[in-house]
Every structure is written in structure tokens, then in C-alpha cells.
Amino acid sequence: MKSRVLASLLLCSATLLSTTVPAVAAVTTATPTPTNQIPNRQLLPNPFSNISFESGKPIDTTGQFKTMTPSGAPKIMSDDSIDGKVVSFDGRSAYQLPVANAQYDKLKNGMSIEAFFKYDSKGSTTGEHDIFSNQQSGGLGLGLEGNKLTFYAHVGGGYKQPNTPLKTDKWLHAVGVIDKQAGKVKLYVNGKLVDEKNRNWRFKISSGEQHQHFVLGGDSTNGGVESLMTGLVKSARLYDHVLSADEVKNLNTSAQTAVHHDKQVAQAFESRLVGAGDIVGGHTYSLNVHTRQMGKGDIDQLGYDVTYDPGRFSFVSADQTLGGKQTTVTETAPGHLHIDSSASFSEAGFRDFAKTRLARIKLRAKTVKAGTSEKAIIKFGNATASMAGAPVTGLKMQQDGQQAVQIHGMATLDYNGDGIIGAGDIALAPADKKAEVAHKAVIRPYKHVIVLTTDGGGNPWDPKGMYYTTGRDPKWTTDPNVLAKRKKHLHHDIVQ
């Protein structure tokens, strides 16, 4: 990315989850309306600048930007998707808004930037394209880069870039916040915090007099504009203070009332539990929970339950969540976990492990009597989804079976819990037990080694079948012709 100063972008994205089978299902219920009442104008925060097009020309109603010079041919117009006037940018046009040093000074100790826009899917999303920005070796701005809606803020010696996937052809409300006191750079989309970055505070403005201008519809460069956008902008604002989460929510609610919402689409999902088929009692079992979307859609919040017998497992923790804080795993009762996510779901197959894993759940297997084993079942429960805060009915989600786990009793002398009494147990045994362990241990020679591989879920080689594919999505097969392909004798000479 290049160095810049200020960009503000407002994003209105709504995507939600559904439960049952692959296919994109159109929601037939009415378009969701905001759950909160429209905030009174007097309750909305006072902007430092407020760019409006309602008069048929660009005007800053606060008087901060007295000059707005067009570059190319931006067009102020009406659009069927929204009330009032908007400005249309064609990827070759923008407005320049000159900034004085005294105005920069009022923004240095904490500020916010807002934009309400709709990016055209026919426009370029390759590289960087900005909505409202002033960056060059400093500064900040709202824009997109590589299909990611991004807030650029030059603080602590470099750019911090909270971001989220961009939804085109949708009215999006985006707010970028530089919070000096909290040490955070935040990006809100449609009233929700979608990403934040920590930083050591020192905000640097765009350097050089030739760069001292904000750009609506792009970014600043030497006396001109660059990184131009394609789409519509309804409004753009700057604030000389840090907006609170409630203020951002109210601004979004107010902005969205002007939108004539299109019919929303609830995409279908597929979920799968992936883990090993065996565990020794008393040890930690890792369960990977995967979800992918079956096509594009507007579901932006998905939740479902994962259940198990609390007499077999206890919850330890969860990590490797999709989207970081956008996915949470909560134990609502013993044996009952609830997963909730507002992250961006991938359409990739489950083979792309990192793209589809929603979370890794760690469970402690309860102890089982030595020499015995017990079967445990882990399965999915209720699934719910929403779009822009409105519940989705008829959620389509394909849930791929359940995870069966055999919990084995740990032998008295099996100190490392691997199911075999061996050299490792001798090392771990207390001094008064080492001789007994050594007597029982199977010390295997390491001149000849048999290697049995495991699959991505940790399941060992199975003589009865295997996962096999000639393409991208492996399927379980017991075809003897396929199984014969793995019978190769490998000889390794290992130095003693």
C-alpha cells in the first residue's frame, strides 16, 4: 500500500448463516428493518465536516471544506436504491478537498472518519481504491485493497490497517476510528466493530504541501488524485473526536433508513467435525469445527451448537478461531458448546483447512479403566443465522454426520499415554518404577521403521479404506483397485 492521510468509508454489509444443504435460497420474508428506532438528529454526534450532495452540488454543511474541486466528471444524481442525492464515480473521477494545517491540528489527538457508499462490482477491485482518503507517507483513509474494505491509519511509525471482506453492490456504512486513549485503530461496518489493531500512539499526517488535500472518490497524490473508486457515495464525514460504539451504531441506523433494500439472499452452508477417532483417557482431545458457505449471500451472523456427553469429555478451551474475535466458543452447560461467528465464510472445499476451520476445540477425555475403552459421540445441535440483525427462517445447512471417539483406558505404566509401554515411559516414570516399566516395555529397534501416516483430522492409516481423489475433494473409498496403489514396499537403510 502507499503512504496516505485520511480515508473514510462506510460499509453496509449483511451476511448470515443458514442450516441444511448446498444451494442459494432467496429469503422470502420482508427485508429486515433496523431493530432500533431511528435516532433523533440531536442524538447524533456533531461532525467536524459533513459532505452532502442534497443541493445538487457538493457542500460541506459545517464549512470546513470551502473548496471541492472536481477531477474528471463526477456526477451528482438520484439512484433507485436510495432516497436523496448521491455522487457517482466512474473510476476516473473524484473531488479534491484542500486542507489547512490548522484543520490537521484539530484531528491529531483522536478522530473518526465515516462514509456511506456502494461499490460497483463492475469496477476494479485489484490493488488499492479509496473512498475518502488523504494518504502519502502519513495520513489516513477508508478504501479497499484486494477485495478488503480497509481503514488506513499512519500511527506509531507505520500504517495500521484493520479490514474486512468487501461486499459490492450493497450500501455499506463504514467508520474508521483512531482512539489515542485506548491505543486502538478500529473499523466499523454497518454499525459493528469488524476489526481493530493495537498501536503505539503518534499520528502522522500526510507529508508535503502537494499532498494536503482529502479526496472523495480516491486518494491524494502530488497535487492530484489517484486510487480512484467506481460506485456511489451518499455522504462522507470527519470527526475531531473518537466516536463511541453507540454513536457509530446510531449513525448506521440513521443512514440505512434511506436505503431501498433489495431482496436479500440467504446462502446455504455445510459444516463438518474433524478429529481423531481414538484418545487415551485423561488426555486432551482436539476437535476441529469446519464451516463453508455454498455460494454468495447476505447472511452475516451464524451460530450453532456442538454437544457431547459430559461424562466422557469436559471443555478445556478453544483457539484458532476464524476471524479472531469474530468467532466465539462458549460453554453454555456441561457437554453443550455454542459457536457464534460474524466472520467471512469461504466457499473453498474442506481440503483448504485454514480457510474453513471455524475453531479448534480442546476437550479433556475422562479417565477409563485400564484395559477397557468407551465410545463417545460429538455432534451438531441447533443452528441459527441472521442478516443485518434480522433472523433467517428456513436456514439451509448440511451437517456432515457426527464424530465418534473411542476413549481408551491408560495402562498403569503408560506414563506418556500413547497406548504403548516403551522407552518414553521409562524416561517419564518415577525412579522407583523405572525398572518395572523397563521390564514391561517393548523396545523397538530403529533400524527398520514402519511409518503409518495420518489424515488431516489425526486419524491413522486404516487397512479397510482411505480418502482418495483425482480432483480437489477427497472421498472415502474401499475400492480394492484404489487401495492397491498404496502397497509399495519402501526400504530405508538407517545408520545404527
The first-to-last residue Cα distance is: 55 Å
Total strand count, please? Answer: 35
Mean pLDDT: 83
| Rg, Å, rounded | 28 Å
Structural class: mainly beta
What best-fitting shape do the alpha-carbon axes yield? elongated
Uncertain spans = 3-36, 490-496
Oligomer: single chain
Count of alpha/pi helices: 6
Main sheet makeup: 9 strands, antiparallel
- Kindly state the percentage of residues in helix: under 10%
**Binned strand content:** 35-45%
Descriptive report:
This protein is mainly β and 496 residues long. Helix content is 8%, strand content 41%. The strands form seven sheets. Strands 2, 3, 5, 6, 8, 14, 15, 16 and 20 form a nine-stranded antiparallel sheet that branches. The radius of gyration is 28 Å and the shape is elongated. It starts with 24 loop residues before the first strand and ends in a 13-residue tail after the last helix.
Q: What would you say about this model in short?
A:
It is built from six helices and 35 strands.
